[in-house]
UniProtKB/TrEMBL annotation:
SUPFAM superfamilies: TPR-like. GO terms for biological process: RNA modification. InterPro entries: PPR_At4g14850-like_plant (IPR046960), PPR_rpt (IPR002885), TPR-like_helical_dom_sf (IPR011990). The lineage of its organism: Eukaryota, Viridiplantae, Streptophyta, Embryophyta, Tracheophyta. This is Pentatricopeptide repeat-containing protein. Keywords: Repeat.
Amino acid sequence: MNVRNVRDKITWTTIVTVFANAGQVDQANEYFDEIPDRDKVSWMVMADGYLRANHFKEALDVFREMEGSNIRADGYTMVCILRVCMHLGALEVGKWIRCYIDKNKIRRDVFLGNALIDMYLKCGNVERAMKIFE
C-alpha cells in the first residue's frame, strides 16, 4: 500500500469518526459506505458510533458485515460487540462472541474480561459471570 492510499484511508476514517462522535450516525454511515478499502479501524469506528448512539442492532449488523469481509476482530472489537449484546440482552450472541474469542485466541485482558462479566450479568447468567470472574 502506498502513502497516498494510507492517507486516503485515514481521511475517510476521520470523516466517519467526526460524524459518529457527533451522533450523526446516518451521515457517518454514508461516508463509511464510500470507503474503498475498509480496515478494522474503519469498521470499528462505525460500530462504536452506532453503539454510542444507542443503535444496537445496527452496531451488531456492522460487526456481522465486518466478519463477512474477512476482517479479523481484536479485543477492542469484542468489548464493543459485548457491550451491544449487553444492551440488547442478546445472551446467545454473547455466547457466540465468547466462543469466537476462544477459537481465535484473542487475548483476554481486564477490559475484555470485564465486558464478558458485564454481558453475562446483564443478560441474566450470574453463574457464568462468576465463573469468568473466578
